[in-house]
Design goal:
Elements: E1 2-6, E2 14-26, E3 31-37, E4 41-46, E5 49-53, H1 57-72, E6 77-82, H2 87-92, E7 99-104, H3 107-116, H4 118-121, E8 130-134, H5 137-143, E9 148-154, H6 168-176, E10 178-187, H7 195-205, E11 211-217, E12 227-233, H8 242-252, H9 261-266, H10 272-278
Parallel strand pairs: 6-7, 6-9, 7-8, 9-10
Antiparallel strand pairs: 1-2, 2-3, 3-4, 4-5, 10-12, 11-12
Helix pairs in contact: 5-6
Length: 279
C-alpha cells in the first residue's frame, strides 16, 4: 500500500492512499505529479503539496468564481492569474463573458492538466473566448493595457514562483488593471493553520482598495478548517443585497454543485477567530 504524505505545515501532515502514479516530472519551476488516490480520485501535486482533486475541486473553483462574478453582475472581461489546472477557467466560461485572459507561468502544468485532469478543466482550454498566455502573471498585471471586470488569482501558497502574488505591488497592479466597478479575489490559505497569510493580506490590501475582506469555504483536501478567500473592490461585497445576488443567479440557472445564493451570502459571515486575525 502506497501513501502520499503532504507536508505543507511543519508540525502537521495529512496522507492519502495512492493507487498509482499517473504522471511524474519536473518543469523549470517545480515538481509535478498526478496521483490516482483511493478517496479523492486524481490529484494534482506541485512540489509535494496537493493543489486540487477530482472529487472536491468544484467547491473551491465554484466559490472562487461565482462569488465575484455574481457580485459584479455584468462581467464581460476576466483575468485569471495562475489557474493552470483549468478549473477556474471552466467555471468562468459558464458565464456570458466575452474574453478571458489566463496567465500561467508554468506551461507544463497546463499540459499535464489537459492530459490527465479532464474532470477538472473539461474543454475549457479549447474555448475561443480564451486568450492563454504562458508567462509571469505579476508582470502581466503591471504592464497590460487591458482592463478587466474581475481578476481571479488562483495561485499556490506563497512559496517559490507564487510568492510575488501575495505582495503589495502585485495587488496594486491588479487594481490598476481593473475596470470601474471591478473585483479582485485570491486564495489566502487556511487561517487556522496559516494565520500570517491572512494578516499579511489585510495589511497589503487595505491601503490599495477602498473595500476589502474575506469570505470562507470548507474544502476537504485543504486541511485545517475553512479556507479564506480575499476580495477587494470599490464597493463592499459583504453588504450586497442577497435578493439581488439570487436574482442574478436565477437568470443564468447554472448547473452548480456547491455554490448557491444562500451559500454566497453565508460565506461572508466570518468565524470570530478569523475576524480577530483581521483586526
Amino acid at each position: 500500500m502506497t501513501w502520499f504524505a503532504e507536508t505543507l505545515y511543519r508540525d502537521v501532515r495529512q496522507s492519502f492512499r495512492v493507487e498509482r502514479v499517473l504522471h511524474e516530472g519536473r518543469s523549470r519551476f517545480q515538481d509535478i505529479k498526478v496521483l490516482q488516490t483511493a478517496e479523492f480520485g486524481r490529484m494534482l501535486v506541485l512540489d509535494g503539496i496537493c493543489q486540487t482533486t477530482e472529487r472536491d475541486e468544484f467547491i473551491y473553483h465554484e466559490m472562487m468564481v461565482h462569488v465575484p462574478l455574481f457580485a459584479h453582475g455584468a462581467a464581460r472581461r476576466v483575468l485569471i492569474v495562475g489557474g493552470g489546472d483549468g478549473g477556474i477557467l471552466e467555471e468562468v466560461l459558464k458565464h456570458p463573458v466575452e474574453r478571458v485572459v489566463l496567465v500561467e507561468i508554468d506551461a507544463e502544468v497546463i499540459a499535464v492538466a489537459r492530459e490527465w485532469l479532464a474532470a477538472v478543466c473539461g474543454q475549457a482550454f479549447a474555448d475561443p473566448r480564451l486568450a492563454l498566455i504562458v508567462g509571469d502573471g505579476a508582470r502581466y498585471a503591471a504592464e497590460t493595457t487591458e482592463r478587466f471586470d474581475v481578476v481571479i488569482v488562483d495561485s499556490s501558497d506563497p512559496i517559490g514562483p507564487a510568492e510575488v502574488l501575495f505582495a503589495g505591488p502585485f495587488y496594486g497592479a491588479c487594481r490598476r488593471c481593473l475596470a470601474p466597478g471591478g473585483i479582485m479575489v485570491n486564495q489566502n490559505g487556511v487561517p487556522f493553520l496559516q494565520p500570517e497569510e491572512l494578516r499579511n493580506a489585510c495589511r497589503q490590501l487595505k491601503p490599495i482598495f477602498p473595500h476589502s475582506g474575506f469570505y470562507v469555504v470548507p474544502v476537504p483536501t485543504y486541511y485545517g478548517g475553512c479556507m479564506a478567500l480575499a476580495w477587494a473592490a470599490a464597493h463592499d461585497l459583504a453588504s450586497q443585497s442577497p435578493a439581488e445576488i439570487a436574482a442574478r443567479a436565477a437568470r443564468l440557472a447554472l448547473p452548480l454543485r456547491y455554490y448557491n445564493p444562500a451559500v454566497h451570502a453565508a460565506a461572508f459571515a466570518l468565524p470570530e477567530y478569523v475576524r480577530r486575525l483581521m483586526a
